[in-house]
Amino acid sequence: MLLRRGQVAAEAWWAPYGPDIPHMMFSLSKSFTSTAIGLAVSEGSLTVEDAVVSFFPERAVPDANLSKMKVKHLLSMSTGHAKDTTGALREREDGDWVQAFLEPPVEHEPGTHFVYNNGATYMLSAIVQTLSGQKLHDYLQPRLFEPLGIRGSAWDTCPRGINTGGWGLNLKTEDIARFGQLYVQEGVWNGVRSLPEAWIREATAFQVSNGDGGDSDWKQGYGYQFWRCRHGAYRGDGAFGQFCVVLPEQEAVIAMTAGTGDMQAVLNAVWEFLLPALSDAPLPENEGEQAKLKEKLASLAYPPLGSGIVPPAAERVSGRRYLLEDNARNVRAVELRFGESDCILKLWYGEEEAELLCGIGRRTEGEIRHIHPSSRILASGKWEGPEKFVMEWRFVETPFTHTLTFDFEEERLNLRMEANVGWSTEPLVLQGRQE
To answer: DSSP 3-state assignment of 67?
Structure first.
């Protein structure tokens, strides 16, 4: 979505994705957490100069640098840690992520060393909950989400019921656009001030160096959970292409939800194509070009896998269970049952079973909680050869698409599972044999 001076200039979704489908924000969540801190500051609940440990007086403070850590250091990712604390949080057996953040040594003096640190944002969420008695998500409902018309949002929590802060928020693309527009309008929405103008400017300004600039939009400086960009812009962003890009000079917002492994290429396209087209004066009306644009945007789609010709192997392998070798996903066996226009995939993983209906030449909807617990799957499949069946899973509330290739060879099965993007995109290759 592209907004200019409060108006939607263009918007598009590649089917089967759409405007009403929520999407995982990943680290774009951080900018919303920062906004909660700005609201709490405006209400007089805290200041950015407050010591982090002051909000948790019952906790021991064995580290001198930890005692110097302030809220502004959490906001600017300059806590002094030498590495991200996420691992320590997730590995904490008792689920006490606050203690997991406070225990490790703080190697550098806070404010002197930038390290992208999910644990820092989690602590901001914990501070909001400590002060307000509400989860971060609940705190933002009347103060941000409801005024902006953001409905149906959700936010993950830690084992102790604190919103994760640095990730886990789920929103629609238009919700991102509304959020960015609030920042373009310097905290005013429908004539009512939601955030102080001074906070908007402070949060999006250069607070700490994170590199030497250059052509990387990840080395232009960091604010309060916002990245500085080239061309005077700033943004919130999340893994695999979740963007809220704000161009204050042009009064423009670019909101994107995506599934890409090259986020810099996306921003390069913004600077190359969109930025130069944002003129100061309105363009003359051009009905022909407007019609072309509408036609193009309406045609965007990822089609389902085509049906193809059903080979004799379909009948031979249909309903046969294949036992798989040991694997990291703990998938023990698979079975495919082919019909005229669909296929039912059955999986045995651990002690559980799951089924997914996969359309052939069309998409069908289902879910597999073991594979991805928070998203629907739109599945389609086709035969690519006499003994090769390919299945595509689009997790439409996420950036992820999985492709499964079943190669049947007499009584054996070679199964290849690969993802478009991920923390690791190494394909999982398994072998199985008919039971």
So the answer is: helix
Q: Angle CA(417)–CA(421)–CA(424) in degrees, nearest 5?
A: 70
Q: What is the pLDDT of residue 328?
A: 85
H-helix or E-strand spanning residue 334: strand 331-338
Token pair of 49, please?
């100069």
Q: What confidence score (pLDDT) does residue 400 get? A: 96
CA distance 77 to 192: 31
Low-confidence ranges of the chain (pLDDT < 50): none
pLDDT at 374: 67
pLDDT digits (tens, 9 = 90+) for 245-260: 999 999 999 999 999 9
- DSSP-assigned states of every residue in 160-197: TS-B-SSS-EEE-HHHHHHHHHHHHTTTEETTEE-S-H
* Per-residue pLDDT, 351: 85
Tell me, what's the pLDDT at 373? 65
Helix or strand run (H / E) with residue 390: strand 388-395
Contact 233, 250 (CB under 8 A): no
Whole-model pTM? 0.96
Please, what is the Cα angle at 76 between 70 and 80, to 5 degrees?
60
Pairing of strands 252-256, 2-4: antiparallel
CB-count burial class (<10 Å; 0-12, 13-18, 19+) for 223:
buried
Q: Which residues in 40-71 are b (16+ Cβ under 10 Å) and which e?
A: bbbeeebebeebbbebbeebeeebebbebbbb
State the Cα–Cα distance between residues 72 and 68, nearest whole angstrom: 11
98 Cβ partners below 8 Å, 6+ apart? 56, 59, 123, 126, 162
Q: Convert the pLDDT of each residue in 177-190 to its tens digit.
A: 999 999 999 999 99
Other Cβ atoms within 10 Å of 423 Cβ, number? 7
118: Cα separation from own chain's centroid: 13
Residues 6 or more apart whose Cβ sits within 8 Å of residue 333 = 321, 322, 323, 324, 347, 348, 432, 435
> What angle is formed at CA 262 by the lines to CA 256 and CA 267, rounded to 5 degrees?
50
Q: Taking each helix axis as running N to C, give the angle between helix 173-184 and helix 29-42, from 0 to 180 degrees, rounded to the nearest 10.
A: 40
What pLDDT, on the 0 to 100 scale, is given for residue 62? 77
Token pair listed for 88:
């320590």
Residue 299 CB neighbour total at 10 angstroms: 10
